[in-house]
Design a protein that fits this description.
By secondary structure, the chain is an alpha+beta fold. It has helices at 2-25, 30-33, 50-63, 68-74, 108-114, 131-141, 162-174, 179-182, 260-268, 273-286, 290-294, 318-327, 406-421, and strands at 38-44, 79-85, 97-103, 119-123, 126-129, 148-152, 155-159, 191-201, 204-214, 217-226, 252-256, 300-304, 309-313, 328-331, 334-337, 342-346, 349-352, 369-374, 386-394, 397-405. It is elongated, with a radius of gyration of 29 Å.
Length: 422
């Protein structure tokens, strides 16, 4: 009896070990999906994660829509990728091909068992969506392209062309990976997209954009990767040296920089030629280049784009006074410009168009720029709804972010809906 019991226990243990081994090895790593020939990847993580469900709640509240039916299917998707790849050589360059990759996790074996209900077998592990479902897609979602599918190592691969699937699967089996893309994908946000720019743009290796939702804020983050020589022009001064960040508030832009001269030189090489010509007039009138004046800016600039006011602290004021006197008439301790604007100078600080009031926004200490963007500038309906933007330099990359609160998102939706109903 003991021998029989031992044999049963041994068999159960072996079966469990084999099952666990299968579950942990049957699926390719996500990195393997990003074949060497990949040009861009859009990736969405688990559609049933806590973070995504929190976003669903926000969307339902904003759109006043019940996602119950959609979430019933979304809960089975553990990952979704749209992969653009190109296996043509440079001499015979063609348009990028696209593949959708669906990860349904532990349900993969069950899905394989059930797939005959939805797909017709074309042979060699390739399938086409049954006509009844193809027609349903066209009628309900306006999808008129034929859908093809194959599966491999825990994933379903979908395309509108069976040859695209075949070409892509051939590349997957080669096991060569585009490290330039895969190394930048973190999988810790709602979704992310990475574009490979290696060899296409000088100094740039890749661009990444991700969308995230946490702490009641929706954020869009952009990253530039590579040997970014120009990034040295975007370094802000230390927090302890900042004196004018307290003026940052709504409708304002705060910039901090250790080398305004270098930044100006870089910007002049990349701006409208007409503006460049206007800046060149500075030397004609003063004998000094515009960059020489910017070299005297003392680390910070604050600009109110609604009131058209600016604070410009400078290291020394003498040359700036000479410059201002060329274009403005001095009246007492103020300078009057031809358009009626006034310039005041106090303690090596130049105030344009009046003394600016302090604001209620504290710029992040690791960012070189902070912008409070009034969306009403682009659409009057959105007046006084704000997006907070910022940028910072990190190792081998520059990050630009744009953040908006869920309360403001709801307000945007309500106003847009109100406009429709008027």
């Amino acid at each position: 009896m003991n021998k029989i019991l031992k044999n049963i226990i041994g068999a159960v243990v072996l079966a469990v070990i084999l099952l666990v081994f299968y579950l942990f090895t049957f699926q390719l790593s996500h990195e393997r999906l990003i074949v060497k020939e990949s040009k861009a990847v859009i990736s969405i993580g688990d559609l049933n994660s806590k973070k995504v469900n929190t976003y669903y709640e926000l969307y339902e509240k904003a759109a006043q829509t019940d996602l119950k039916e959609a979430k019933k299917w979304m809960k089975y998707i553990k990952g979704l990728d749209l992969i653009y790849y190109n296996d043509s050589n440079d001499e015979n360059r063609q348009e990028d091909k696209e593949i959708i990759v669906v990860n349904i996790g532990w349900l993969y074996p069950v899905a394989k068992f059930k797939q005959g209900e939805y797909f017709d077998d074309l042979g060699k592990n390739y399938f086409s969506l049954k006509e009844v479902y193809q027609k349903q897609l066209e009628e309900e979602y306006d999808v008129d392209k034929k859908i093809y599918m194959t599966n491999y190592k825990g994933y379903y691969f979908i395309s509108d062309d069976v040859m695209k699937l075949s070409d892509y699967m051939r590349l997957v089996i080669k096991k060569e990976i585009n490290k330039n893309i895969s190394s930048k994908m973190k999988g810790d946000t709602l979704g992310e997209a990475v574009i490979d720019l290696d060899g296409l743009a000088q100094g740039l290796d890749a661009v990444k954009i991700n969308l995230d939702y946490e702490k009641n804020e929706l954020s869009l983050n952009g990253y530039l990767y590579g040997d970014l020589e120009f990034s040295k022009y975007f370094n802000g001064i230390e927090q302890k040296d900042r004196k004018f960040d307290k003026y940052m508030g709504r409708d304002k832009i705060y910039i901090t920089n250790t080398d305004f001269k270098g930044l100006t030189t870089f910007m002049r090489g990349n701006i409208n030629p007409e503006i460049n010509s206007m800046l060149s007039l500075t030397k004609m009138f003063t004998g000094k280049d515009f960059e020489d004046y910017m070299d005297k800016v003392d680390g910070e600039v604050v600009y109110d784009y609604v009131k058209n006011q600016m604070i410009l602290p400078v290291k020394e004021i003498k040359d700036f006074k000479k410059l201002i006197e060329i274009f403005a008439k001095k009246e007492g301790d103020k300078y009057l410009l031809g358009d009626g604007k006034i310039i005041e100078i106090k303690d090596n600080v130049i105030y344009y168009n009046g003394i600016m009031s302090e604001g209620s926004i504290t710029p992040k200490e690791d960012e070189f720029i902070n912008i409070s963007l009034n969306l009403g500038l682009y659409n009057p309906i959105l007046k006084d709804i704000y997006m907070d933007m910022g940028g910072k330099v990190e190792k081998n990359k520059i990050k630009i972010r744009a953040t908006i609160t869920d309360g403001e998102l709801l307000e945007i939706y309500n106003r847009m809906e109100g406009e429709k109903n008027d």
